[in-house]
Amino acid sequence: MKALMYRGNVLDRDFICAAYENSENSVNICYLNYELFNLQWAPGAVVYENKTGNINEYVKKFSPYDVQQSTNDVGKIVQNVWRPGLNLDHRKALEIDYGDESRAKKELKLLIRKLEEIFLYIEPDTRSIDLCYGHKTRELLILACTELENRWIHYIRLSNKGGADERYTTSDYVKLYDKLFLNEFKVTFTNHPFVSNIIPFSGWNHARPTQSLKFYDAYNKLKHNGYDNFEEAKLSYCIEAVSANIIMHCIRYSPYSIIEGNDSCSIIYNEFFSISLENPSLKNFYIPFLKKVEMATGVFSAPLGSCFEKLWEIESFAL
Fold this sequence. Notes:
Blueprint: E1 2-10, E2 13-21, E3 25-31, E4 47-50, H1 55-58, E5 65-73, E6 76-78, H2 90-93, H3 98-119, H4 128-131, H5 135-158, H6 170-173, H7 176-179, E7 185-189, H8 214-225, H9 235-253, H10 256-259, H11 264-272, E8 273-277, E9 313-315
Parallel strand pairs: 6-9
Antiparallel strand pairs: 1-2, 1-5, 2-3, 3-4, 7-8
Helix pairs in contact: 3-5, 3-9, 3-11, 5-8, 5-9, 8-9
């Protein structure tokens, strides 16, 4: 069952909404219209009415526009891929293993700390980040891109497109661009406002899979001929490569893994960065399958897993 996705007005506020019918009711749920587009649980933000059999008529009261049908069925998600709408029972839905997540956070923390160390010697602003490079930036760029490859390979293997010993290139990695919605993620450098918002995967394309991803192209040149391409190790590429790792972590483990944690990785991340979505695809949001109204009374003051009519169903990741 698909949902009707649209922008509309609920509680005199503009929301992104999803409307569908559960076993007994027409349901309208709301997503915040900024940052991570989280589901909204304020009283009245989840609207139930008796089934009409015509969901298009049902949503007219919310002044809908930009109306489109959801790509995903209600209650279904793609394996290991976070999208807006998945903040109910997200750890189970994303099949998060605590050991794997802990290791991934340690690796991410190491990258951010290395970047922080460089900032002790180079103040990042719009001029310095493209002019400054050295052995420490070269070291960080290579480490960050190597870690990024590991995160990409997880999804290629998840799609059963490669074995443990197979070698991959950017022609393989770029296939993840659309599947993981990489162009939608924006990382903000909160501690250094002179550095603009970072969209590291912007412009990545199949026609030029290496050259169109500039920080990775720089890493590739350094890896194959570091002496002649030493100037490619500039600070701006380090920032983009670390930001790309943050994005991949958020896709696999959800943004809440680093935003809401109380461990050292979350602390250092929140000191330097924030993450948000820029013009995300509404039709690719996830839609939780919520309970009928009489079963859900009083539940919506908090996003509790018990408010499902059906738990999340996981569809295999495919390329």
